[in-house]
Structures are given as structure tokens and as C-alpha cells.
Amino acid sequence: MEAVRVYADIHGLSPEAFEEIRQSMPFDQVVYKDRLLAVDFEGHYIDVEPFLNDVARLLDDDGWGKLDFIDQIDYALTRYVIKKGHWQAKDVLVDNVVEKVHLESGV
What we know:
six-stranded antiparallel beta sheet
């Protein structure tokens, strides 16, 4: 099992901003198109906060995003909400997220 999973959708990131952070991103699986950056990462432990600082600094004025950091070893989820100039972290119960997805999928 991989140590962490990271999923993010970040809206309002210009092509120039994406180029600025592209080389320093701690992720190997990203898709960037039409000012939207999507992250899908599974792997070793990484520090996402420097990335969040860069994204918050470079977002368009009306840009926003969410990043979920799932620690699969400690079974913990931290949800980061990103806006221009800042981000906030909130611990979320993993079971609540998994149960909601389960209910929405009808499985």
C-alpha cells in the first residue's frame, strides 16, 4: 500500500503560473488544461504545503481549489481549501468521506 494519496482540482491558474510551479510540484501525475490543474498522486509521503503556498500566491483573483491529502498509514484525511493569497487545512474523518461516496454511488 502506498503511504499517501493526493487529489486536487485547482481552478484559475494561468498558463504562466502553471509553468512557474510545474518544475517544483511534488506530483508526477497532473493534468493542466483551460486554467484547471488536476492532481492525482499515490506514493510516498510528501510535504504539500510549499506547493499550496505557491498555488495560493499564483492563483487568479477569483481562483480557488481543493486538495485532499489522505494518509493511508494513519488513516487520516486533511482537506485544504485554496484561495488567492491563502489556504486553510481541515481534518476530516475518512469514514465520513468514504460513506458519502458509497451512498452517492448507490453501491
